Amino acid sequence: MGWARTASYYKHRMFRDGDSVHRITAGLAIGAGISFTPFLGTHFVQAAFLAVLFRVNWPASLIGTFLGTPWTFPFMFWLSYTVGTIIVGIFGYDDYIALPDDINFTYLREEPGAFFSYMLDHPQKLLLPFVVGGYAVAVLFWPIAYGILYYPVKSMNYLYHKERLRRTYMRAARVKEEKERIKRAKKIAIGESEQE
Fold it and tell me: Among 158, 142, 147, which residue's Cα sits nearest to residue 18?
């Protein structure tokens, strides 16, 4: 029940405030875009900050970060690094981020300690294109995510509020029925006391 309860809680938080479909979808898209950035431990914080900054639904932005999973991160990070390498190259910093020919995947597999030692000594060679590409892809991915998510969110929002309205009517009907039952019981009690 842990994950189901958590999902239900965030769904409730996302739709309960009465935000527009635009604000909810924009929040989800922000979270999905932030998932392309390399700073794994900060995705929630970045998404919430941007959601508050742009005045969109912040619980939705947290949910959007779940696009990044152990199965999607390899593709997302490859895309971010590739785009970052292209962007950095356009500005003429190819030499600044170029890796030596012997630093490759085979070297990582055979000498992981030496590979990571090299990367720690030259962090800009990996981190600079990764950061630049991650935020560039995040900005480019936002309208795509927004377009994909808009109509499903609109449908879910409608169904959520319809169900909430139905529950409100049912609760009001139960309260009215209970009041009438109490009133009938009082009339019966008063009638019995008068007979005595």
Answer: 158
Cα separation, 117 vs 134, in Å, equals 23
The residue among 86, 23, 89, 73 whose CA lies nearest residue 51 is: 23
pLDDT per position as a tens digit, 58-98: 888 998 999 888 899 889 988 998 999 899 888 887 777 77
**Cβ atoms within 10 Å, residue 153:** 24
Residues contacting residue 137 through CB under 8 Å, at least 6 positions apart: 33, 36, 76, 79, 80, 83
Helices (H), 18-123: 21-34, 43-53, 58-64, 73-90, 94-97, 105-110, 112-121
Structure tokens at 117: 């030692």
End-to-end CA distance of the chain: 57
Q: The pTM is what? A: 0.73
Residue showing tokens 């479909």: 21
Measured CA to CA, the distance from residue 123 to residue 36 in angstroms comes to 19
* Cβ 134 vs Cβ 36: under 8 Å: yes
- Distance of alpha carbon 16 from alpha carbon 42, whole angstroms: 26
Please choose, from the candidates 108, 146, 194, 168, the residue with its C-alpha nearest in 3D space to the C-alpha of residue 29. Answer: 146
Tell me the per-residue pLDDT of 167-190, one tens digit each, with 9 for 90 and over.
Answer: 888 888 888 888 888 888 777 766
